[in-house]
Amino acid sequence: MLERVKNYALYGDTDKESYGMIKEKIEETNRLTALIFASVATVLIFVMFLLSFRQEGFASSQPVYIFGMIFSLIQVVVSLASRKIPVLTYVSVYLALSVFMIYGIAIAAFTRPEEQTVTFMVMLIFVPLIFVDRPLRMAFGLIFYIIAFIVIAYRTKNDPVLSVDVTDAVIFGLLSIVSETVVYRAKIRGYVLEKKLHKMSETDQLTGLNNRNCYEWRLGRYPMMYKNSISCIYIDVNGLHELNNTKGHKAGDEMLRYVANAVKKQFGNNDSYRIGGDEYVAFALDISQEDARGKIKKMCEEISVKGYHAAVGFDVFEGKNVDMTSLIVTAESKMYKNKYEYYKTHDRRARI
């Protein structure tokens, strides 16, 4: 029970691992939302500030409008900076929450204390639904501003407006916390499902490596991912067809999984791919040819432990502006040469 409550309060009824998978997505969404709303808020508050010079009803709120414009502009700057400094994403979220809440409190308590509060109640319900953050943390933020509003209201308002506003703040505050938690849960579970579906679409179900879809999608990104060199390792398992014919497809699948693990162990899961029935490709970024060849040797030694064999082709490009197609084709041609040399001394019909 306690674990369920913890997961609900911290991870939106998922778990820590699932939350970790979508953390970047949450930060990206919050960053964009904070920037959009800060920009829109700056423009709208500026318009109201201009109106205050012509409309008597807005004149008393000029100091609040100035405050709102200044802090909205600060939020724009923080939101833009958060692209390079991710931790500022959460600063931007709670800065936005603070700007809207303080704006609502100021309008209610200082410029129109004799009127029943509307702006703060609207902010209380609406603003928390904009962003995605842990329910517990957002709840504490809302409680802080609800208490602040009540304390200030007692100093600036009189009955019967005071009693109505305090009651509304408590009721709308509780509704806000509940609705924010429910919406957060729905958003988080949606993000997790989206991530899992995306992962499935890019993962080879037999070996767990990245599949061909993922391989083709990432090829265009590799020229921007390395600094000095990029190596391509092209691997083709020898004897899969013969093994399937003699010992069955289950044995063939076992061999493919074993080889995949050997590839992943040396070159990492992120840069290893199964692109065909018995073909794998791996990339190594910014390592020397000697280190790359050492990894290939270890991989082949591990594969041979089980009596398997793989033909391997290797090519490296040093410098910028790599032609990925040329790099891969060269590695593939070397693999076929290695495969040809293997079958010169091994009968294709021989059992594994």
Explain how this protein is built.
With 352 residues, the chain is an alpha+beta fold. It folds into two domains: 200 residues, no CATH class; 134 residues, Reverse transcriptase/Diguanylate cyclase domain (Alpha-Beta Plaits, 2-Layer Sandwich), CATH 3.30.70.270. Helices cover 69% and strands 9% of the residues. It is built from 13 helices and four strands. It has a four-stranded antiparallel beta sheet, with helices on both faces. A hairpin with a 4-residue loop joins strand 2 and strand 3. The longest helix is centred in the middle third of the chain and has 41 residues. The protein is elongated and about 100 Å long. The chain starts with a helix and ends in a 7-residue tail after the last helix. The mean pLDDT is 86.
Q: What's the arrangement of secondary structure elements?
A:
Layout: H1 2-11, H2 16-51, H3 56-59, H4 62-81, H5 88-111, H6 119-130, H7 135-156, H8 161-201, H9 212-219, E1 229-238, H10 240-247, H11 249-267, E2 272-274, E3 279-285, H12 289-305, E4 309-318, H13 324-345
Antiparallel strand pairs: 1-3, 1-4, 2-3
Helix pairs in contact: 2-4, 2-5, 2-8, 4-5, 5-6, 5-7, 6-8, 7-8, 10-11, 11-12
